[in-house]
Amino acid sequence: MAAPASSSLVVDVEAFRGKVDHPLFREAQLAEIRSCFSGRVAEARPLHAWIHGPPGTGKTLCVRFLLDRHVPQTAAVPLYVNCRERFTCYAVIECLLDQLKPLRSPQKSRERQLSILRNMLAGRRSVIALDEIDVLPIQDAGDLLHHLCVLPRTAVLCVASSRQLLLDLPDAARSRLAPRQILFPRYQPAELRHILATQLERALRPGSWTAETLRNIVDHAYGDARRALILLRHAVQRAEEASAEQLRPEHLVASNYDHDPHASDVLAHVSEHHRLLYELVRTRGPLAGTLLEPAYREACASRTHDPVATRTLVKYLGELCRRGILRRERGVGTSGWIYTVARGNLSCQ
C-alpha cells in the first residue's frame, strides 16, 4: 500500500510504488532475452525463452521493460498475458486476440479463435510473453505452447518460478519450444541495498532514512526485491502513523518479516483444499506424503468438508510445489515425498 501524496516522508509517489526507469543488475538477462527476438538469426526465425527464478528477482520487470522499450523498435508486435489471470489455454488466446483487436467471429470455439490468431500473426513479427505460465494446468500449457511455437515469426517468452513445468511438458510441446533457459537468481545483499537506496533517494525526503533501516530491510528480504519493497511500505506507513520525521528500526515490525507475500497471493487464488494442505505442512511439517493424506482427511472430517480423491490430492500438492510455496524431496530410504514450506528459497525442487 502506498503512502498518500501528502506524506511528509514521501516526495515521489511513483517511485515509492516501485516504478523504475531501467532494471538494475539484470543486464546479462536483458541481453539474453533481447537476443531471442532481435539480430540476424531472430530475423529468420525468432528463438523462444524460458525465464525462471524465485519471486522478486525482476523477471516480470525485465520482460515488461523489453516489451515497452525494445520490442517496438524491432517492428514486432508486443503481446503480454498474465496466466494467473487467464488460467486456461482458451482464455490466454482470447487475451491475445483482445490486444490484436481483429474482427471477431461469433463462433467462440478454441479452434476458431486459434485460426484467427494464426491468420493475424502469420505474416507479422511478434513477441508473446506468457507471465506465470507455471500456474496453467499442464495440458493447457502444452496445448498453448504447441500452437504458439508454430507461428513462424513469433518469439514466445515463458516466465515461471522454476523449470519444473518445462520438464513436465509433453515431448511434442517441449521439442517445438526448445527454449533458451535464462535464470534470474536472487539478488545479493549488496545489489538489493543499491536497488533500495536508489529508490529511497527518489521516493523519500532527504534525511528521512538511515543506513541501518536499509540494512534491516535487506536482512529480512532474502534477496526478494518485491518483499523488500513491501517491508519498506509497511515501515513508511508506520512512520507516518507515528508522525515520525525519520524511518527507524522500530517501524519494521517483526511480524512482517514472517509474512510471505508470494504465499498469500497464491493461496488467495486456489481452492480450500489447497489452503488446507498448505496449512497442514506449515504447522506440522516436514511431513511425509503417507502421513499428510490421513492428516488431510482427518482435517476435512473436522471441518465437514468432502475430501478429494488421492489422485487429486497429489495433483494439488504438485501445484503448490510448482507455484513455489511448498517444497518436496525424496525421503531417505523411501520412494515417498517429504513436504516442507519453502522458506527463503521459493523455487520448486
Description:
α5 (89-100) crosses α6, α10 (189-203) crosses α11 (211-219) and α15 packs across α17. With 349 residues, this protein is an alpha/beta fold. The model is unreliable at 1-6, 254-258 and 344-349 (pLDDT under 50). The protein contains 17 helices and 8 strands. It has a 5-stranded parallel sheet, sandwiched between helices. The chain has a 3-stranded antiparallel sheet with strand order 6-8-7. The chain folds into 3 domains: 13-19 and 187-259, Helicase, Ruva Protein, domain 3 (Orthogonal Bundle), CATH 1.10.8; 27-183, P-loop containing nucleotide triphosphate hydrolases (Rossmann fold, 3-Layer(aba) Sandwich); 262-341, Orthogonal Bundle (Arc Repressor Mutant, subunit A), CATH 1.10.10.10.
Which whole number gives the mean pLDDT?
A: 83
Q: Beta-strand level of the residues, as a percent range?
A: 5-15%
Number of helical segments with 4 or more residues: 17
Secondary-structure element string: HHHEHEHHEHEHHEHHHHHHEHHEE
Gyration radius from CA atoms, angstroms: 22 Å
Helix content: 40-55%
